[in-house]
Task: inverse folding
């Protein structure tokens, strides 16, 4: 049996982190960690090497795009797939996000009961199972 997947949630809004974490832990065996800022998320990604990062775009000081650039510039984290979580999802925004290498875009508000399915779909995790 393989270890459960590890998802890191990086969002400055505590409510969003809590809802996403509950949605994932109630429906999957995945391990979830959270970070309240891009810088905290980078530090955690370096130390924990999650299987994927669910990243908010709009954060103060160090936003999602700056966080992506930092993650992609490090050999320790550049392999980690990133899925954006955002309220800003116009077609032009999505093109910009995909151009910087994100694997998917999930719009806020999101349904916590289908969040794991969305993540698995974006990442091609065909071994995905509900609890």
Result:
């Amino acid at each position: 049996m393989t270890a459960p997947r590890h998802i890191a949630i990086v969002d400055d809004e505590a409510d969003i982190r809590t809802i996403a974490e509950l949605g994932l832990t109630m429906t999957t065996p995945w391990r979830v960690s959270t970070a309240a800022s891009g810088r905290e998320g980078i530090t955690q990604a370096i130390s924990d090497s999650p299987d994927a990062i669910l990243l908010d775009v709009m954060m103060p000081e160090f936003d999602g795009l700056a966080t992506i650039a930092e993650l992609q510039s490090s050999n320790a984290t550049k392999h980690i797939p990133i899925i954006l979580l955002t309220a800003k999802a116009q077609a032009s925004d999505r093109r910009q996000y995909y151009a910087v290498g994100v694997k998917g875009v999930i719009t806020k508000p999101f349904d916590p009961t289908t969040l794991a399915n969305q993540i698995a779909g974006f990442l091609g995790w065909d071994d995905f199972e509900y609890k």
Observations:
- The radius of gyration is 13 Å.
